[in-house]
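P.,

For your records, the input lines for the assembly:
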Amino acid sequence: MISFDKVGYSYGGGELLSEISLTLSPGSFHFLTGPSGAGKTTFLKLCYAELLPTAGRLTLFDGEARGLSRDDVAMVRRRIGVVHQDCQFLDHLPVAANVALPLTVTGKDAEVADLQDLLTWVGLRPLADALPPSLSGGERQRAAVARAVIMSPDVILADEPTGNLDWEMSQRLLRLFLELNRMGKTIVIATHDMNLIRTAKGQVAARVLRIQNRRVQLAGADL
Amino acid sequence: MKELLQRLGLIWSDRASDRVVPPTGHTAWLTGFTAGAMAFLAVFALALSLASGRLADRWAEALSNTATIRISAPPDQMTAQTRAVLNLLGTTPGVQGARALSPEEQRALLEPWFGPDLPVDSLSLPQLVEFTEADGGYDAQGLRLRLQAEAPGAVLDDHTRWRRPLTVAAERLRLLGWLSLVLIGGALAAMITLAANASLAANAQVIRVLRLVGAQDRFIAGAFVRRFTLRAAIGASAGVAMGLLGIALLPSADAAGGFLTGLGFQGWGWLVPLVLPVMAALVAWTATRIAALAKLRELK
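Structure tokens returned:
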């Protein structure tokens, strides 16, 4: 599904990621950890072709990342739901429209009932008509999660999804990711939250990847 | 063609793409205003072009089939030379008919220049003989030689000398009118390209979010194309309405009979400006699409 073969990524001067070889196979569940600035976000950006590798070969759904046209990249992103750290929205559209945006850009209409269920699930139903700038950090994060899953994508990438959430909401979010994983979705969560990883431990065969010294390593045994 | 129609159809049907781009105040009304101003000017350029075309046709038609012979002879020979010229014309191949102008007709010709009280009888004026060409035309050089031999005071003026520059001038004026229309269209395209680029740059964050959720360039460009096309069409419609009103308020051609008063539209010509909003929309559609796709390539 997403396959790294000796992939490296360099910013202007230095090399941030190097010699990464791994495969995110269908239905797998990964946590990505590492110190701040280690390259977790860069790794995720490589996964949805926001960045292209400067070395090695990265394959996204059978297509080599560097050979993808802009339209191909768009098609890849329809199969990947992304929850950003700095959840970006269209500030002039209400929350409900922002959550339904992936459907809008593909020309599909959101079923009102489904959309309301999803908003209820992330606890944003009362804020469906609110504009994003009026949301708190946690509310923005929940809206971003709802937007990422609305298309039922094959892969879900989440960058510190519980960073602004309370414990209860973090657990609900984890349950959603676990449920999606049981449905065959591939999940990658970049997080510092060890409690989240421990909680997941008993429920899913998740793998923990650790980025250290520019390389991705398997952090000990499978959880 | 089918693809073009589908793309044009998007302008009217794909409101979803329209919503994702935030409304922009100044760009919106400036685009509409500029399209309106350009359309207003285009109406006058079109009127100028059509009027000068009519003028060129009229001059060409009025002057192409007639010629004049001017007889300057002593009074006692005038009648004889006039008769000689008429006889000569009667036997000239390519001449359909000929007649000598009466003193009243000659006075009428001079009246615009010297006023109605000109004592024509007391002046030694040349006698004018007007003749009409047949379809095949006549041999002007041969006629001149025969006139020289049989009526030495007669000079052929076949109108070509001054007809041609007038017709050419009117044709050039018509061409200038069309050129103005092209320039107006170009200026509109340039302005809309600039506005679209500014709008795309101002909405870089929106584009980033749309791309993140899988929007293709066609969808993103469609939002801008639809918006600018509609603004241009609405602005141009208002401009055309104002322009037509301005033309309608010009003095009637019949009242004074000059070129400037004949600047209006005639008959079906009043319908021609209705094409301008469609043309403005097409220009805006093309300019915005090219600008948007180029900018989106840049923002890769």
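Two observations worth noting. The mean pLDDT of chain B is 82. The CA atoms of residues 225 and 288 of chain B lie 5 Å apart.

Regards
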